[in-house]
User: Which sequence fits this backbone?
């Protein structure tokens, strides 16, 4: 095949894909703003997306905080700066690792689950059935998931931040010879509201990305079990990539460094 | 009399594949029309064009004489309340109990109170021969035939004016297929609805229809009263209703 035709087709496919995603996002936001609202379904998604993600987010935050403390201590040790551990741990966790790791974990757990559920509904005509029963599928399926993810992610991240700092505290006090009260005082004195808030804003955006990519890929799945499998994979991969890409953009915007 | 459903020159293509190439079809109020045709001839696309799940590229869809082709979003809501549909695979919501499936259109679509909708759901389940203890089961606990019955109960729950049946007997044993055919005939009459079905099961088609139309090559190539299907004088129809491999219809082995 002609190499230019190949490149041209790939670019057109990409643009069409972006266009479809933008259209889907627009329809979802429009549906968000107008009744009917499905309160019961939002509550159900709070449990599935928020509550049930707590263990995995907590566990990864704990180990991240612990490892971070250890690495900073070892690194700082090279030029006698090991006392900086609490400050760097709280900075790293609240600004970056808390929201990003929670986002990636929720992407793996929730984007996959959403895409698989909605994808199966799509290929078994359940989404068409919603339409014939006078129910807008976007309002019924997408909006509750978007709302729940955007609200839950900052809460998950706030909990993850605390657990992450606690992980660092554990390692620092048990293994590295820090005094507990000094560690906590240094943490609290150093962290600013902006450190924490910027992380929570990121988390809300990541929540939006995860729910959107799960729903979008689910709605566009085709052709049976294989199609649903592909949609699930695409949902996880695309949310992870988008999380990492928007993380950079958000950091630049929130801290005016670009 | 104004036709209940009228399609005028409906065309639809997917990519380079032309599925509907100018379909003209009329269904009179209170009658049952069955569209027959091979797999992939656009029967489902025809129904989905009427339902608005698919938008035709060209042509018009008229319901009660009103052009509804371009209706979108909330403008479409009053129209959708006239419709009920039985899907091929049932398309029951597996996260909801059987009665919630049947009551879905009443609760979500029309804002009826749950308790009242539940009474109606159980009554409709009774109409398709299911007892109230089935109401609390999950759809995945039901056999294929029972799922079809629940799908039928859901389709008629809101007393629709028009009911669509997509391959109602596919995947059922001959006895269960006949039971479903009887239920379709009786429920459509009870509700006084207009019915539009698609099938390739000729036994079912003869039983549930007043008129039959055959879709081939994206067009309606023959239509007439059910009694006349055996003397249609159309060799395509003859080949199809007798299920012959040899004839003018060449099945595309590869889609």
Assistant:
């Amino acid at each position: 095949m002609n190499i230019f035709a190949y490149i041209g087709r790939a670019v057109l496919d990409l643009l069409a894909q972006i266009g479809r995603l933008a259209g889907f996002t627009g329809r979802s936001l429009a549906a968000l703003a107008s009744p009917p609202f499905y309160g019961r379904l939002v509550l159900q998604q709070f449990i599935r997306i928020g509550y049930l993600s707590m263990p995995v987010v907590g566990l990864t935050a704990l180990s991240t905080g612990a490892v971070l403390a250890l690495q900073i201590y070892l690194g700082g040790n090279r030029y006698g700066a090991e006392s900086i551990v609490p400050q760097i741990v709280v900075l790293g966790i609240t600004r970056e690792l808390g929201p990003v790791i929670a986002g990636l974990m929720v992407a793996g757990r929730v984007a996959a689950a959403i895409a698989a559920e909605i994808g199966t509904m799509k290929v078994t005509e359940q989404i068409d059935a919603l339409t014939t029963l006078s129910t807008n599928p976007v309002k019924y399926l997408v909006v509750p998931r978007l709302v729940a993810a955007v609200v839950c992610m900052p809460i998950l991240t706030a909990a993850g931040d605390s657990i992450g700092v606690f992980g660092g505290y554990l390692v620092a006090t048990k293994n590295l010879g820090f005094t507990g009260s000094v560690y906590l005082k240094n943490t609290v004195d150093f962290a600013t509201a902006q450190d924490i808030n910027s992380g929570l804003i990121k988390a809300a955006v990541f929540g939006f990305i995860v729910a959107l990519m799960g729903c979008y890929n689910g709605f566009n799945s085709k052709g049976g079990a294989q199609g649903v499998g592909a949609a699930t994979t695409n949902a996880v991969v695309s949310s992870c990539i988008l999380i990492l890409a928007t993380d950079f953009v958000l950091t630049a915007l929130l801290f005016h460094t670009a | 009399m104004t036709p209940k459903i009228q399609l005028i020159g409906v065309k639809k293509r997917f990519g380079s594949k032309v599925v509907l190439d100018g379909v003209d079809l009329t269904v009179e109020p209170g009658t049952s029309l069955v569209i027959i045709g091979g797999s992939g001839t656009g029967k489902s696309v025809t129904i989905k064009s009427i339902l608005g799940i698919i938008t035709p590229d060209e042509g018009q869809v008229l319901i009660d004489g009103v052009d509804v082709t371009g209706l979108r979003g909330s403008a479409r809501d009053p129209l959708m309340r006239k419709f009920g549909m039985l899907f091929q695979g049932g398309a029951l919501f597996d996260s909801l109990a059987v009665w919630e499936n049947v009551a879905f259109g009443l609760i979500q679509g029309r804002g009826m109170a749950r308790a009242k909708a539940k009474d109606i759901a159980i009554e409709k389940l009774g109409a398709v021969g299911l007892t109230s203890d089935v109401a609390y089961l999950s759809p995945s606990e039901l056999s294929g035939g029972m799922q079809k019955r629940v799908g039928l109960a859901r389709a008629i729950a809101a007393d629709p004016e028009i009911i669509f049946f997509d391959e109602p007997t596919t995947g059922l044993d001959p006895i269960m297929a006949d039971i479903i055919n009887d239920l379709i005939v009786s429920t459509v009459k009870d509700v006084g609805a207009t019915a539009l079905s698609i099938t390739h099961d000729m036994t079912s088609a003869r039983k549930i229809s007043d008129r039959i139309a055959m879709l081939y090559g994206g067009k309606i190539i023959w239509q007439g009263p059910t009694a006349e299907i055996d003397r249609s004088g159309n060799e395509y129809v003859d080949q199809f209703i007798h299920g012959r491999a040899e004839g003018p219809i060449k099945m595309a082995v590869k889609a």
Summary: Residues 85-123 of chain A form the longest helix (39 residues). The interface with chain B takes residues 36, 121, 124-126, 128-129, 131-136, 140 of chain A (CB under 8 Å). The two ends of chain A are 42 Å apart (CA to CA). Chain A has a mean pLDDT of 91.
